[in-house]
Amino acid sequence: MAMNIIRLFKSLFSKNKKMLIIVGGRVEKIEAFREPAKKMGLDVTLASFSDLKYAEGGGGKASFSLKIKSVEVSDFDVIYMRMIGKRIEDAALLTEYAIQKSIKLVDGMYKKSHVYPLSVAKSLEMKRLIEGGLTLPKTLCGSLKTILTDGPKFLRFPFIIKSTSGRHAREVWIIENIKELKAKVTELTPIESAGTKYFAQEFIKASQRIRVLVVVGRAVAAITRPTKWRKRFIEKVNGEFPEGIKEALSPIPAEYESLAVNAAKSCDLDVCGVDILVEDGTNKTYIIEANAAPAWKLIKKDTPVIVEEEILKFLNK
Q1: pLDDT attached to residue 14
Q2: Which of the pair, 262 or 195, is modelled with greater confidence?
Q3: Contact predicate 54/65, CB 8 Å
Q4: For residue 202, is it left (φ>0), alpha (ψ between -120 and 50) or beta?
Q5: Pairing state between β 198-202 and 139-141
Q6: In this structure, how many other beta carbons lie within 10 angstroms of the beta carbon of residue 42?
Q7: 276 in helix, strand or coil?
Q8: Closest CA to 194 of 163, 167, 166, 170
Q9: What is the CATH number of the domain that holds 292?
């Protein structure tokens, strides 16, 4: 109670919040926040989960102190967990401590997650999106054996197989026929036995993909890029495939903004990259992903938006 009152007074009388941005990996991954924070005059600490520590001195004292390097975590007003990767245990520890100390957590999903946060559980993410009334491609989640037996009938060829980790679109395969399906299931079964999960989705004939960056309920930027397998279904012009479009969407179409904001809200995400497919011919929209740790290199390339500044403004509120 006393801690909450102290934090309330700090928020009332302090202009800038004391912020921690933490990443599961090298601090260099979030180094781009340093210069904008300095420019904006903000008190920001950049750290890795590797810097998290606590020590118990014994003697029966009922106290616990969690530190980032030499700084007590309870000194921070807001914590942004940019990417947690495999540091689930550290993230769980930091989350519980932040909740106990009434520290604002970004994203909000960490306060509501049970065992596994949405950022690393795609099956749970898709469940939330569906429950939020958003349209996904027809999807089959289950074992590879289930995908082998039910996939051809439920999805029809061609369809897509993805891993739930979905590492930068590398673990995504298009399956054209039963022979390819059997071969891929045989190839992936040992990996599945080691703990990786897979799911299958219908193949959407969309030649362009839209990425919308959402920061606390507001779409701040959007870009479009050609899709991976567009040449399988688009027509050639004068014997050549037309170039895919690589550009910013400005202003952001209202439909895409609404879809992205609703997707972020459904997954309890404050900072989020939402991927949208628009089916060629029908213009039907599908949500593909709500990414809690989106890359924004292309957004910074195509738009004037300084993403780190947008996030820091939000954190400082």
Answers
A1: 52
A2: 262
A3: yes
A4: beta
A5: antiparallel
A6: 19
A7: strand
A8: 163
A9: 3.30.470.20
